[in-house]
Specification:
Elements lengths: L1 E2 L18 H14 L8 H17 L7 E6 L9 E5 L4 E6 L14 E2 L11 E11 L2 E8 L14 E4 L5 H7 L10 E2 L4 H8 L4 E5 L10 H11 L3
Parallel strand pairs: 2-10, 8-9
Antiparallel strand pairs: 1-5, 2-3, 3-4, 6-7, 6-10, 7-8
Helix pairs in contact: 1-2, 2-5
Pfam family, one: YkuD_2
Protein name: Murein L,D-transpeptidase catalytic domain family protein
Organism: Hymenobacter nitidus
């Protein structure tokens, strides 16, 4: 179980990824600029990681839905809208919302992350969105964890995208922070259906946070994929 070294609400600085070409870095910077004000709080380092992972996963054939990327900066406190659903091809923010973290991960800003069953923690890493079903939280979308050892127990832990009253603005206004899931990236009740529909099946979702290590953060492969196919 990884832990952040501080209980500050300030996110940890992230170094630039190695082996990322200047061309790819410029493309990510241009994307962020085009996304506009809704993406101002999306840290450039987090967006870079999300884009590199998306491209590497596309190259490996591990994700099928092209042009859509969801990223949550779980190093931000739950009081901030820290989830973005992006259209890479249209270069726009489709949705931005609050997202709850697991009870085992900490209070306002999560500090512990785990893949362990019954940990009630958020697990960092890249996910592939799967099918939808009607569960106890209503419409939900299953998630496949793509990082061995970090989030690969997602299906066994029933980590899914779903809506929850404790993940919305009304709860935040009343309690000063979001409530907690059992490890799921739970979404606001007023937005969850639209977000679940927008990401679709076979898309890339990154739950970013301190200590994230992923084989999909391969700048060289990502650059090759961008040169060959663009954001497709």
């Amino acid at each position: 179980m990884a832990a952040a070294p501080t209980d500050s609400l300030q996110p940890e600085p992230l170094p630039p990824l190695p082996a990322v070409s200047e061309t790819l870095r410029q493309e990510v910077a241009a994307l962020r600029a085009a996304l506009g004000p809704e993406a101002e709080a999306l840290r450039p380092e987090v967006l870079e990681r999300a884009c590199v992972g998306y491209l590497t996963l596309r190259h490996a054939g591990r994700i099928r839905r092209t042009g859509v990327l969801a990223v949550a900066d779980m190093d931000l406190p739950s009081t901030e809208k820290r989830l973005w659903v992006l259209s890479l091809t249209e270069k726009k923010v489709l949705h931005r919302s609050y997202v709850a973290h697991g009870r085992g991960s900490g209070t306002v800003r999560p500090q512990r992350f785990s893949n362990r069953i019954k940990s009630a923690c958020t697990a960092l890493g890249f996910y592939r969105t799967a099918d939808t079903y009607g569960g106890k939280h209503g419409l939900s979308r299953r998630l496949h964890g793509l990082d061995a050892g970090q989030n690969s127990n997602a299906l066994d832990r029933y980590v899914v995208l779903h809506g929850a009253d404790y993940a919305g603005q009304e709860y935040l206004n009343k309690h000063g922070q979001l409530g907690y899931s059992r490890g799921c990236p739970a979404l606001p009740p007023e937005q969850y259906r639209a977000i679940i529909k927008a990401v679709g099946e076979g898309a890339c979702l990154l739950l970013s946070g301190p200590g994230l290590v992923s084989k999909w953060l391969d700048g060289a492969v990502a650059g090759q994929q961008l040169a060959a196919r663009g954001w497709q």
